[in-house]
Structures are given as C-alpha cells and as structure tokens.
Design goal:
- The protein is an alpha/beta fold.
- It contains twelve helices and 14 strands.
- It is 30% helix and 16% strand.
- An eight-stranded parallel sheet has the order 6-5-4-11-10-9-8-7.
- It is elongated and about 100 Å long.
C-alpha cells in the first residue's frame, strides 16, 4: 500500500462524520460541498475541447475535474451480438454497439498528462475512474489524489481492492446496486486497510428522472455503511444536487460540457459552465443554511429584536386619565409591555403625567 499519509481520515474510526482529505481539500459534513466536474466523453475526441472544459470547471469554482480511464478494449470486446448492443429504446444511445460507443467516448491515455497539468496550474484537482487494473497502474504513475469506482464497476471487487490498495481515497458510485452489493464494495475497500471511503447515491439512467433520485436515502446510506455520502447526479439542472445537501451529501458530481447544443456523447444531461458555477454557489449556500438543530433568535437578529411591537403611550396623558385604545397602542419598538396585556390595562388610571412616546409599564397605572 502506498501514499497512505497523503490523504487521511480525521478520526480513527471514520464513519459518516469523517472528514476525508482529497489532495489537501477536506470532504465531509464540516466542509463545504466538494464539487466534481465529470468530463467523461464530452471532449468529443478533441484535446483542445478537453482543455477548454478544464478551464471552464476551474473558472466555475469546481474542486476537481474527473476523467474516465479506459479504452474500448479494456472495458469490453469488439463483438456484434445483441448482448453487446444497447437496447433500441435507450433514450441516448439506442441500438449502439458497446465497442463503438466506448471507442467514441474514451479519453486517450496520452491526454491525461496535459489535462492534469493544466488542472494543477489552475488550482483544480484532477483524478479519474479506472475501469481495470492497468488503468489503476497508469493513474498511479500520474499520482492522482483519489479514485472513483463507477456504478457498473461496483461489483468488480478485485478492481475495488486494487484501487483501494493504493491508499488513496475511494469514491464508490452506487447506481443500480443493492444494499448487499454496496456493503461488499465498501468492505472490499476496507479490507486493504483503507478506510477513506465515500459512497455516492446515484441513479444510473441518462438523463435521470428527479423522481427516482430518492434523496431521503442519503442519511440511511451514511448510517448503514458508516461512510460519508455524496451524490452522483444525472438529472437535468441543479435542483436535485442542491437539495441533496439538506440530506447530508458531502460531495456532488455532475457531468459538464461546453455546450449541450453542440451535442456529444453525454451532453444531453451535462451542465454548461454557467450552470456549473451556479451549482458551486448554490450547494455552498445550501450547506451554509443548514446551521444547527436549534430554534430561537439568531445573533444576527439581535437588532431586529429591538423593533418588535410593544405597548407605548401615544398621546400625552395626565394623572387620572384612563388607559384607552387612543392613548396606548401596540407599536414598534419593543421596550413596553407585551401587546396582549392591553386587555388588562384598558380602563386602568394613569398614576402620573406621561409624555407621548413612553414605553408602557405597570408602574404607570
């Protein structure tokens, strides 16, 4: 196992409240949401476009850019039978051969270094999803700060163990997975001595229906598996991602493209740069708004407390005058008796002359 000291869990036992360091950036409930911009195949086979996406992700304030490291030959084989084709009714890639789709979508391995170099120059973390052990070995040569296990690979426990054995944080996406499969993957990672595990709630459909997001499951997953939980989101827009923060998501991953109108293998469910910037801002706002589980006046409301309503003498009165609705009213500020005491005060006599603008008190009647 290598680099165990590079990224550490705060707290020996980890758990849902652990803070995991990824490339020096804290990820956990006590830190602002960690935003990953997933490039996937949205470079459309152009290194220049890939670098443009990196610049856009950095400008938007994302914490990391993520690639997918595979070739068509490491993820499938060149066979044309029905089981190697997507269903005809698939909303994006109907009828396509797996081999052709992955050949189009893959990021050439020789592009990783210039992409990672630019990301580092711009202050952006860069890592990837490996799809076989050769990808892990290659990414180790680039000293990535973390690994992401894709939803379809969660059942490849040897791959999980291979990535976890590097000592780097492991982010496991759970689209399609059962409780048992998630448990097995988390335990496979931990079996290497690596407790730096983050699990992502995920709906592995493209695009995903928000109604299938089941965000209420996020705290359930955190408690069930004893790990911080984030969201890998394939819905359109940022609504589901922002909402996930209220349920304890510590990380959000969204696919990013320069322009949906220009097309691309994943562009239909990807965010454009301005939307990514909105995601960064609004998830941070949602996290800040969580506050504490308490009810009552906030420190920031102290000045407002002075200007609640209370009973004041609103006309000059003489000793012996009765309290009436004309000379005592509920107004701002809050130095007088509570408004609801007027029914007790009404008809009582003032014991002294009182000037207009005096806070009402029991001593005056």
């Amino acid at each position: 196992m290598t680099n165990m000291g590079a990224s550490t869990v705060q707290g020996a036992q980890g758990g849902p409240d652990a803070t995991i360091m990824i490339g020096g950036v804290p990820v956990g409930r006590s830190a602002e949401p960690f935003i990953i911009a997933e490039m996937s195949g949205n470079h459309d086979g152009s290194l220049d476009k890939a670098l443009e996406i990196v610049r856009a992700a950095a400008a938007a304030g994302a914490h990391a850019i993520k690639l997918q490291t595979y070739t068509a030959d490491t993820i499938t084989i060149d066979v044309d039978t029905p089981e190697f084709r997507l269903s005809e009714d698939h909303p994006l890639w109907g009828g396509r051969r797996l081999y052709d789709l992955y050949e189009e979508a893959h990021t050439p391995w020789e592009w990783h270094q210039p992409i990672f170099d630019l990301a580092k120059e711009l202050g952006l973390l860069a890592f990837s999803s490996p799809f076989d052990p050769s990808a892990v070995a290659f990414l180790e040569s680039l000293d990535v700060p973390a690994y992401k296990i894709a939803s379809s690979e969660i059942v490849d426990l040897p791959l999980v163990r291979c990535a976890a054995a590097t000592g780097k944080p492991i982010i496991i996406s759970t689209g399609m997975a059962s409780v048992g499969e998630i448990h097995a993957a988390v335990e496979a990672a931990r079996s290497t001595g690596n407790d730096q595990v983050i699990v992502l709630s995920c709906t592995a459909s493209y695009p995903a229906d928000p109604a299938s997001s089941n965000l209420r499951g996020i705290p359930v997953m955190a408690d069930a598996f004893g790990v911080p939980v984030g969201l890998s989101d394939h819905t359109m827009g940022i609504g589901a991602a922002v909402a996930s923060i209220a349920f304890g998501a510590v990380l959000v991953e969204k696919h990013v493209t320069m322009s949906r109108a220009e097309g691309g293998v994943d562009s239909d469910f990807s965010l454009e740069p301005a939307e990514l910037a909105a995601l960064v801002a609004e998830t941070r706002t949602a996290w800040q708004a969580l506050g504490q589980p308490r009810i009552g006046a906030r420190e920031s409301e102290r000045e407002g407390l002075r200007f609640r309503r209370s009973l004041y003498v609103v006309e000059d009165v003489k000793a012996g005058d009765p309290v009436t609705a004309d000379n005592v009213r509920s107004i701002r500020p809050a130095n007088g008796l509570a408004p609801d005491t007027f029914s007790v005060l009404e008809g009582k006599r003032f014991t002294q002359d009182v000037a207009r603008g005096t806070a009402m008190s029991w001593e005056l009647v």
